[in-house]
Amino acid sequence: MPTHYPSTLPAASPAAHADEAPKLASAGPGLDTMHATSDAPVGIGWRYPHYRELLTRLPRLDFLEVHSENFFGDGGAALAVLEQGRAHYPISLHGVGLSLGSAVGLDTWHLEQLAKLVQRIDPVRISDHASFARGAWSGPVGAQTIHAADLLPIPFSTEALNTVCANVQQVQDRLQRRFMVENVSSYLRWLPQPEETLWSETEFLNTLAARTGCALLVDVNNIFVNALNARLHGAAGDPVQHCLDWLDHIAPQQVAEIHLAGHCHVRPQPGEDAGDEIIVDDHGSRVCPEVWQIYHHALARFGAVPTLIEWDTDVPALDVLLEEAAQARSVVVASLALRRPAAIKPQDRASADSSQTHAIGCNQGLAV
């Protein structure tokens, strides 16, 4: 049986809009929050260009998300800013470097740095990706462990599942907190070994959550990017419908957060190979209409789970992110108003997906 760890802070009390200079309401030990009044929390990724402005304006948001690795260390200006943000908002720590799928095991230094940050910030949620970056490398100086600094896709095999389960359990045991694992966008596929059967991605993730007690972070844009790339490489069917089917095969009770972001379409230049066309999950634009549609379905299935707006490249004005957050909140209100308690059948919660997802192959390099 998995060990069940706590994952969330006490719920924050609603406050008025920051522009109206409200009195901040306490949301727990050491936490004041400028909290928006929605059924499902909505937050934004808090990046360097917006540090000062956000602390000055204190806009209506339910939480802020930061990349854990940017705040490793025992001090410094970045950590001081994060602590200021933590005084006003719940913080979600989202990692990109744990390498949960690495067969060589976790970097213990990395895990210890994350544990120190968790103890210092007391985040509302903690997460990383179902990917790998660490691996054994035999070079001129002999065997060594290297880090690719990327979110490389893992094969959905039983061996890989056992590896991810062991690594996730190690993280949860060290942090003493429930951990979230995110599905990734991938730009290549793993071929099965002889007589090996690969799991579907949704069955893999459901089983990971059931075995370890971890939660799932569903990135809606990643699902859509994978479906678009699959179509570029010959997969049949409607990419949006593929995404809706993917969501329908995820166990609803395991989902603890949803991510929304933009992507870009990279088309071959004149004279380049047509096979170079690719959709990249670059987090550099507004959420597209199709992803909003898929998000609506996700809320109808999973209920009032927190939603994050991600924007990591070509970071725009803060008001653009706030507009995206407001759009997410409007979709939350519309979706939850239509959601009936009977919409999710009990057997759906216990069952795992047995269908195979579309494989995505291309000859491009990998993008974070």
What does this molecule look like?
- The protein has 368 residues and is an alpha/beta fold.
- The protein has one domain: Alpha-Beta Barrel (TIM Barrel).
- It contains 10 helices and 14 strands.
- The strands form 4 sheets. It has an 8-stranded parallel barrel with strand order 3-4-5-6-9-10-11-14, surrounded by 4 helices. Strands 1-2 form a two-stranded antiparallel sheet. The protein has a two-stranded antiparallel sheet with strand order 7-8.
- The longest helix is centred in the last third of the chain and has 21 residues.
- The protein is globular and about 55 Å long.
- 43% of the residues are buried.
- The C terminus is likely disordered.
Classification by helices and strands: alpha/beta
Q: Quick one: CATH class?
A: Alpha Beta
Distance between the termini: 34 Å
Helix content: 25-40%
Total strands: the figure is: 14
Tell me the Rg in angstroms.
Answer: 20 Å
Q: CATH architecture, please?
A: Alpha-Beta Barrel
Quote the beta fraction.
15-25%
Anisotropy-based shape: globular
Q: In DSSP terms, counting alpha (H) and pi (I) runs of 4 or more, how many helices? A: 10
CATH topology: TIM Barrel
Supply the CATH superfamily name: Divalent-metal-dependent TIM barrel enzymes
